[in-house]
Automatic annotation (TrEMBL):
Tagged with keyword Coiled coil: no
Coiled-coil annotated residue ranges, if any: none
The protein's name: DUF418 domain-containing protein
Transmembrane segments: 105-121, 128-150, 182-207, 219-239, 259-283, 304-323, 329-352
Record's keyword annotation contains Transcription regulation: no
Domain annotation DUF418: ranges: 206-371
Record keywords, A-Z: Membrane, Transmembrane, Transmembrane helix
Pfam families, alphabetized: DUF418
Signal peptide segment: none
């Protein structure tokens, strides 16, 4: 399900002939079906999925590190493994951006891993909690301050969207150059915005206490995080929907985007907690997973391959340098494309799982990451 949210977040970017409204890449107009698709995406998906994956990324890093140390690998070698892995994630992200999609997130997570692991991996729980509080406070002041400041200004002219010219470029080589040029600022903004570093620290703290692996021991915390985090995120999302639909009279409606972005931290953590509660429900039911659940689990185990495959499926289909279908779609039909691409990845992952075949991207990343350990005398 997590990769479905990623697909839903990305496909609106490819509506490159639409006039952009007050929210990210969503069109300013549309019929009833489009409005429903926009509302769902703004409330549930936009600026929420990246923090959820940031949380889970940190959680997975700690699991990998703990497993290696438990097997007897020296701490310095385990840390070197993580560092190598993050450099390769950064490289994967660059290749992804060069070939397909400037909105890549792999490079951002690789960069965050390179920065956050040395700074925080050996810190105490108390230090992590303090820094979570500091980052949240800074982000809150910036979000609310930006929103308030923009409303004190007279109406500002719309800022040209930097992404549309990239996706509307029909020349393959020119589009490639534009994608790479856009990827580097996005790479840095993912760290500078503080949302992903904050989600990373939440995930690292949760992993230390095995909160998702042992949900039965942490049910009150998981329920509080899920209800509170999703509640905060969706409440701000509903306000953003009203802003997007021109239901609120604001001098500069785009200014609320900073608040919407900030609350994505809480929604992302809340989603991770909700998945922990779902896992607990499956465990306590004791009857095992049915076919749909097994297929979703198979994709989860091949999430890197699934993520890249989604781009391979819908980017050439929608971008102007490919088939250019994005020029003929609206919000609801773009959502159908996203769901279709995700269903294909679920089916392929299920087939690979039945044949006991790992995802190709996971295999490549593992081989590249562990190669330095094998070379060590």
């Amino acid at each position: 399900m997590m990769l479905l949210l990623i697909a839903l977040a990305h496909t609106p970017w490819f509506l490159f002939t639409s006039e952009i409204g007050a929210t990210l890449m969503h069109p300013a107009d549309g019929n009833l079906a489009d409005r429903i698709a926009q509302a769902f995406t703004i409330v549930v998906v936009d600026t929420r999925t990246h923090t959820m994956f940031g949380f889970l990324f940190a959680y997975g890093i700690w699991q990998l590190y703990s497993r290696q140390v438990a097997k007897g690998l020296p701490v310095e070698d385990a840390r070197r493994l993580l560092r190598t892995r993050h450099w390769w994630l950064l490289a994967f992200g660059l290749v992804h951006a060069v070939l397909l999609w400037q909105g890549d997130i792999l490079g951002t997570y690789g960069l965050i891993g390179l920065i956050m692991v040395p700074l925080f991996f050996n810190r105490s729980d108390r230090t992590l909690k303090v820094w979570i509080g500091v980052l949240l406070a800074i982000s809150f002041v910036f979000a609310v301050g930006s929103f308030a400041a923009m409303q004190l200004l007279p109406p500002l002219p719309a800022v040209p969207n930097a992404q549309q010219p990239i996706l509307a470029e029909t020349d393959v080589l020119a589009a490639l150059v534009l994608r790479v040029a856009a990827w580097f600022p996005g790479l840095l903004s993912g760290v500078a915005s503080l949302a992903l570093p904050t989600a990373f620290l939440f995930g690292l703290l949760a992993a230390r206490h095995r909160i998702l692996e042992e949900p039965a021991k942490h049910l009150p915390l998981l329920r509080t995080a899920a209800i509170g985090g999703i509640g905060v995120g969706w409440s701000a999302g509903l306000v953003q929907v009203m802003v997007h639909f021109d239901m609120l009279d604001l001098p500069n409606p785009a200014g609320f985007g900073s608040v919407h972005f900030f609350t994505g931290i809480f929604a992302g953590v809340g989603y991770a907690a909700a998945f922990g509660l779902i896992a607990h429900h499956v465990q306590t039911r004791g009857s095992g997973l049915r076919l749909p659940g097994r297929a979703l689990l198979a994709l989860g185990r091949r999430s890197l391959s699934g993520y890249l495959t989604q781009s391979l499926l819908f980017v050439p289909l929608l971008a102007a340098w490919g088939f250019g279908l994005g020029a003929h779609l609206s919000s609801w039909s773009a959502m159908v494309v996203a769901i279709g691409a995700w269903i294909i990845t679920v089916a392929v992952a299920s087939l690979l799982d039945r044949r006991n075949v790992r995802g190709p991207a996971e295999v490549a990343l593992r081989k590249l990451s562990y190669r330095t350990l094998r070379k060590r005398p």
